[in-house]
Design a protein that fits this description.
27 strands, mainly beta, four-stranded antiparallel sheet
């Protein structure tokens, strides 16, 4: 399973499908399903507007890891299956998806968006979100989500949780089960579409699992040859797109053109079970391995810099915290997934 997250510096208001202005800021107690967040909570709306990322253009950064081998600290556990963390810089909170086992004749997995307020408070942000990977728009009004319940990319208005569709098909054929996504400064969305959460619903893509691009409401295929594509991230300068082939045990690299189209694909690194990912301001890539329960850290050159252990079955990571240097990690076993954290030397891009 994926997501998440790490993207280019914030830019101005943009349009995607409708008059939605977007520009992504990405990347205690067990949450009680009865807890809710009021639509008027200032942490949802006003406090998110006008946020800025921590990256300084042209800055020099140190080595990202204090040591080549590190271990993250578990904040809390007891969740079903955590995924897709994303940091809300304005309110200082983290959203993440919590998926449960499939239900009904179609065997579709319900998903709740939970909210973490440091140091140890969890509550429910949206009970029936159907989400996996998450991103928050730069104007602080909406969440973009890879949503497997409707086999779509969705947008959630933070003020009232109302949902709209950003994209739901490719050439009239439904996606499998969108898993993770990243957004360029101009609003172009890149999304992975494995079949992990398709359940018993029909395969409308003829066995293809692919990477897609959504630009001005138009969906195009980036790559239909990646086996179970999972995490997906952009380099800070938006010249490179990375995606993980979960069944290929490979991280792929694509040159990114100024118009958002992709060029040549190359192999960036080999990794067992690549899941979600994020990047930092220096362009280092942090990729979760579901297979070994670690975050594997690579320089933009492909050099392996080290690992961060986080229990078992690591699914995703996102930068956050007041200075953007806290890496939050989702990892665990079914029914006892946890949220982990570790302080690093370089802030996320953005967080």
């Amino acid at each position: 399973m994926p997501r998440r997250s790490a993207r280019a510096a914030l830019a101005g208001a943009l349009t995607l499908l409708t008059a939605l202005a977007i520009n992504t800021t990405f990347t205690g107690d067990r949450a009680d399903a009865g807890d809710t967040v009021s639509a008027g909570d200032p942490a949802d709306v006003g406090a998110l507007a006008g946020t800025t990322g921590p990256c300084t253009p042209g800055a020099s950064y140190p080595s990202p890891l204090p040591a080549p081998t590190m271990a993250a600290t578990r904040i809390s556990g007891g969740f079903s299956f955590l995924e897709g963390p994303v940091w809300l810089a304005g309110s200082g909170q983290l959203l993440l998806s919590d998926m449960r086992g499939g239900t009904g004749p179609e065997n579709v997995q319900p998903s709740t968006i939970r909210r973490f307020t440091p140091p140890n408070t969890f509550d429910v942000f949206s009970e029936n979100a159907g989400s996996n990977g998450l991103a928050v728009t730069g104007d602080g009004t909406r969440i973009l989500a890879a949503t497997h319940d409707q086999r779509s990319v969705s947008s959630y208005l933070l003020s009232d949780r109302s949902r709209s569709s950003v994209a739901s098909d490719f050439q009239g054929r439904r996606f499998n089960s969108p898993n993770d996504l990243t957004v360029r400064a101009d609003g172009t969305v890149y999304v992975t579409d494995p079949n992990f959460q398709r359940g018993n619903r029909p395969d409308e893509l003829g066995g293809m699992t692919g990477v897609f691009r959504v630009s001005d409401g138009e969906v195009s295929l980036v790559d239909g040859t990646v086996s179970q594509p999972n995490g997906i991230v952009l380099s800070p300068d938006e010249t490179t797109l990375y995606t993980g082939g979960n069944a290929d045990n490979t991280i792929f690299r694509y040159d990114l053109m100024p118009d958002g189209s992709t060029g040549q694909r190359t192999t960036f690194a080999s990794l067992a079970g690549p899941d979600g990912a994020t990047v930092d301001c220096a362009g280092n890539i942090y990729w979760a391995s579901y297979t070994d329960g670690r975050i594997h850290v690579f320089a933009a050159s492909g050099e392996k810099l080290g690992t961060i252990s986080a229990g078992r079955n690591t699914t995703n990571a996102a930068f956050g915290g007041p200075d953007g240097r806290t890496l939050y990690i989702t990892s665990g076993t079914w029914g006892d997934f946890g949220l982990y954290q570790i302080e690093l030397n370089v802030p996320g891009s953005p967080y």
